[in-house]
Design a protein that fits this description.
By secondary structure, this protein is α+β, with helices and mostly antiparallel strands. It is built from eleven helices and 17 strands. The strands form five sheets. Strands 5, 6, 7, 8 and 9 form a five-stranded antiparallel β-sheet that branches. The longest helix is centred in the middle third of the chain and has 18 residues, at 191-208. The radius of gyration is 22 Å and the shape is globular.
Length: 432
C-alpha cells in the first residue's frame, strides 16, 4: 500500500487550505525553513503581500523541491482548485491564452505558496482591464561587481525624474542585488505605450548618470545598473512586495520609504525580520493605489528621443518584430561593416539548469586559460538567466574584449553543456 502523503490543513479567514508535505525542507543553508514555515511567513505578512497581488493574474513560478532546486513556470491555474479561487483568461503575444490564478485574500495566497510559489509574480494589470496596465515598473538590475551604493544612487535619480513628470515612485528591494521602483498609473495606455514610456525614462536616467546607469539591452554593451524597460512588455512579471527570493538567507523583496534608502542593505530584509518590520511600521506601499498618475510627460520625452533619431530598442526574444525596432541581434552576432565595429569577442563556457554547476564550469575554464582569465574585468563575465517555455537554465559567457588577441581562447566545448531547450530547438529547425 502506498504511503499516505503527509498534509496539514490550515483554516485561513474561514477557508480550509491543505498544505501538502508541510515538513519538506525549502531552505537549508543560512536559514532552515520548511514548506509550512514559508506558508506561515506569507500569512504573517498577508496584509502587505496580498495588496501586491490582489485582483491581478499571477504567473506561477513553482519551486516544488524547495529554493535550492530549479523552478518551473506555470501560466495555467491548476485544474484541481477550490471553487472560491478566482481565475481570469489572459492572452499572450504568442496568441495563446491561459486561465491564470487571481489571489484576492490570504487563503488564496496560502494556496499558491503550497504549490511551491516561493516568489509571487503578478502581472501589471487588474482583472477589470487586461489590456491597460495600472503600473509602470522600473527594474534596477546591477551588473557584475556593481555596488549596492550605485543602485541606491540610480534609484534616487529615478525618484527625481518621476516627480518631474508628475509620478510618484514606490521603491522596494528586489530581494536580490537590485531595486524596483513602481509607479501607479491610470489605466489609459497599452502595454506598448507603457513600455515606450519606460524606455524613455531609462534613456533619460542614462543621460543624467552615464557612469552609473545604462539602458542597453544587450549584456555585452552594458555597464553599471541596467534599467530594464522590457519588464513593462506584455507577459512579463517581476516579483512583488514581500516575495521571498531563493537565496540562502531567504531574503525578501521589501517595500521601503525613500528616507530609508541611504542606510538600508538588501540583507536586512528576510523571512525572519519582515513580519516584525511590517507590524512595527506598517506597509510603506499602503497608499500606492491612491497615487495614480499620467504617462503623458514620459511619452512626450519618448517623442523627443525619436525626433532626435533614437528609435525603438530591442524587445524580448519571443515578441514579434516591432515597428521601428532595429535588428534584434546582439552586437557580437551582428554582420556587416558597422556591426564589426561594435562586435564583441564572446564565447560561451557553460550551460546548465544548475547555476552552481555552470559557475563551476567557469572556474574550470579560468584554470584552463589562466593568462586570458587574468585580463578579465568583473563585467566581462556574463551570467545569463535563460528561460524556455517552462524551464530555466544558466548560461555563462566570457567577453574577451580586454584579453590581447594573441592569447584569446577560441570557442571550445562548453562544460557543462546542458541546455534544456536544445532538443526542442533542433526539432523545430528540422520541421522548418
Amino acid at each position: 500500500m502506498p504511503k499516505k502523503e503527509a498534509a496539514e490543513v490550515l483554516t485561513v479567514e474561514g477557508r480550509d487550505v491543505r498544505i501538502s508535505n508541510p515538513d519538506k525542507p525549502y531552505f537549508s543553508r543560512d536559514v532552515k525553513l520548511s514548506k509550512l514555515d514559508v506558508v506561515q511567513y506569507y500569512l504573517s505578512v498577508a496584509s502587505g503581500a496580498v495588496a501586491g497581488v490582489r485582483d491581478r493574474p499571477n504567473m506561477l513560478k513553482r519551486f516544488v523541491d524547495g529554493a535550492e532546486h530549479p523552478p518551473f513556470y506555470q501560466k495555467r491555474a491548476p485544474e484541481n482548485r477550490p471553487e472560491w479561487l478566482r481565475t481570469v483568461t489572459l492572452s499572450f503575444p504568442s496568441g495563446r491564452t491561459a486561465e491564470e490564478v487571481v489571489v484576492d485574500d490570504a487563503a488564496g495566497l496560502a494556496l499558491i505558496v503550497n504549490l511551491g510559489c516561493i516568489e509571487l509574480h503578478p502581472h501589471a494589470v487588474r482583472t477589470n482591464d487586461l489590456d491597460h496596465p495600472d503600473e509602470l515598473r522600473i527594474d534596477l538590475d546591477p551588473g557584475p561587481g556593481v555596488e549596492w551604493d550605485d543602485v541606491r544612487r540610480v534609484a534616487i535619480e529615478v525618484k527625481n525624474l518621476l516627480e518631474e513628470v508628475g509620478l510618484r515612485g514606490w521603491p522596494k528591494t528586489s530581494g536580490s542585488r537590485g531595486m524596483h521602483v513602481n509607479a501607479r498609473i491610470h489605466q489609459r495606455w497599452t502595454f506598448t505605450e507603457v513600455r515606450r514610456a519606460a524606455l524613455a525614462l531609462s534613456r533619460e536616467i542614462e543621460r543624467r548618470a552615464p557612469k552609473l546607469a545604462t539602458s542597453k539591452w544587450w549584456k555585452e554593451e552594458r555597464h553599471g545598473v541596467f534599467l530594464d524597460y522590457n519588464q513593462n512588455a506584455k507577459d512579463r512579471t517581476t516579483c512583488s512586495a514581500y516575495s521571498i527570493r531563493p537565496l540562502p538567507d531567504a531574503r525578501v523583496s521589501a517595500p521601503l520609504r525613500w528616507e530609508e534608502i541611504p542606510h538600508c542593505e538588501p540583507g536586512d530584509f528576510t523571512v525572519l525580520t519582515m513580519p516584525a518590520r511590517l507590524k512595527a511600521i506598517g506597509d510603506p506601499n499602503a497608499r500606492m493605489d491612491d497615487a495614480a498618475g499620467s504617462l503623458d510627460q514620459l511619452l512626450e520625452l519618448a517623442d523627443r528621443d525619436e525626433a532626435a533619431g533614437l528609435g525603438d530598442a530591442p524587445w524580448p526574444p519571443h515578441f514579434r518584430k516591432m515597428e521601428g525596432e532595429a535588428a534584434r541581434v546582439a552586437p557580437s552576432r551582428a554582420k556587416g561593416a558597422k556591426a564589426a565595429a561594435r562586435k564583441m569577442p564572446l564565447i560561451v563556457v557553460a550551460n546548465s539548469p544548475n547555476k552552481d554547476a555552470a559557475l563551476g564550469g567557469l572556474e574550470r575554464w579560468k584554470k584552463t586559460h589562466p593568462d586570458a582569465a587574468s585580463h578579465l574585468a568583473v563585467d566581462d563575465i556574463l551570467v545569463d538567466s535563460m528561460r524556455g517555455r517552462s524551464s530555466t537554465w544558466t548560461r555563462i559567457r566570457v567577453n574577451l574584449r580586454n584579453v590581447p588577441e594573441k592569447i584569446r581562447p577560441a570557442q571550445g566545448t562548453r562544460e557543462p553543456d546542458d541546455d534544456p531547450t536544445r532538443a526542442w530547438r533542433e526539432a523545430r529547425g528540422k520541421k522548418a
